[in-house]
Amino acid sequence: MTQRPRDRAAGGSLPADANRQAAARECVVIGAPTGAFAWSLDAITTLAKPVTDVALRPLDRTDALKPVAGKRNIYLSRVPGAAIIEAIASGALKPLLVVEDPVSGVEFQMRQEKRKLVEAIRAHTAAAVANPFIAAARDPLIVQSDPRFMAADWVRFLAEALALPSDAETVAGVLKALGTTTAARLEEAITRRYPAQAALRGEPSLLDDGARAQVRSVLEPMLAAAFRGHQRPVVWPTSAFLWGDRPNDPAPLVADLLGPARVIYYGPYYHLPPGLWSAELALEFGGLIEDLEFSLEVIAGDLLSRMIIGPRPSGRYLARFRFRHKDPVQPIEVRLRSERGAIDGTISLVELRLDRADG
Q: Is the four-CA dihedral 142, 146, 152, 155 of positive or negative sign?
């Protein structure tokens, strides 16, 4: 991300006033499955272990909050669901968002968890569904990891942000427990604990230029949504979709329409924040397609939108529509189907652009 919005740590230094931003109310720590967030969760767990009046509460996407009575609850989530979003929106939870470059984060997860590219992108979209609500929160704290940070400064920042002990002895003890020292930079500390992080620097990348472009077009706008005033369209390119003629295979740039009526493109099963979305689907038609009709459906558990694309000449076509997405747990499936058999013609799903219309 190229912008430098408020509360973002940049230039190798962390926000100096994290302790002043620690609110009396309870907190939720959110991040994608990246090396920096995995290490941060380890650090927070170690920091909180001896603190008797704090309860750490890992949350999956479908979990209710279920606070521990008599404790100050700190929630931890890679996949925020409706309960976390509602609590952030109401002011009941103060959000702390840990951000990392999405290309590095996706490749880390591919290596660490043996995920395919589409699976890793999907997991990162699930981690970002609360971001517009974080942007609208009263006092969010958002920090982006940087190889220049010292590991000790990062631990101290996390401790102060969450009102946990942050003295030098505690910080040194946490670093020792995580297998590193006060002299280590954050990158070195993560690498020691997670071999996948070392592979990002020492081995050829798993991502070619096309994969990197897809990661950025899908994830960078979702990360930017956490910063007030930095919203821009999420773009799902052809490579994000699957091919109806060969289920689970990546969609081709140009699909042949010859044959019976059928689903041509579907997927990508990525997640979006809840809200009203404006969509623009770019299609390219070729050959003799003047008599063909297509249907377009958007599904997330329930049918969110359906439209018919009537007969038209070959060339570029933009299908514009809106849909309201209510459940961030449900991934989005787009289905583009030919409604008549064809003896000729081609179609290209160039891209789907998505703008969150209500903020």
A: positive
Which pLDDT score, from 0 to 100, does residue 202 have?
79
pTM of this structure: 0.90
Q: Which residues of 173-205 are buried (b: 16+ CB within 10 A; e: fewer)?
A: bbbeebebeeebbbbbbbbbbbebbbbbeeeee
Strand partners, 250: 242
Q: Which residue has the tokens 């997330």?
A: 300
CA-atom Rg of the chain in angstroms: 22
12: left (phi over 0), alpha (psi -120 to 50) or beta: left
Measured CA to CA, the distance from residue 323 to residue 222 in angstroms comes to 18
Which stretches of the chain drop beneath a pLDDT of 70?
1-25, 359
Residue 31's identity, in one-letter code, is G
The b/e string for 74-99 (b: 16+ C-beta within 10 A; e otherwise) is: bbbbbbbbbbbbebbeeeebbbbbbb
CB 332 within 8 A of CB 262: no
Nearest of 313, 312, 309, 318 to residue 336 by alpha carbon? 309
pLDDT of res. 22: 45
Parallel, antiparallel, or unpaired: how do β-strands 262-270 and 246-250 relate? Answer: unpaired
**In 240-262, which positions are buried (b, 16+ CB within 10 angstroms) versus exposed (e)?**
bbbbbeeeeebbbeebebeeebe
The count of other CB atoms within 10 Å of the CB of residue 108 is: 27
- pLDDT at position 6 is 36
Are 335 and 264 a contacting pair, CB within 8 Å? no
Residue 228 has what pLDDT?
81
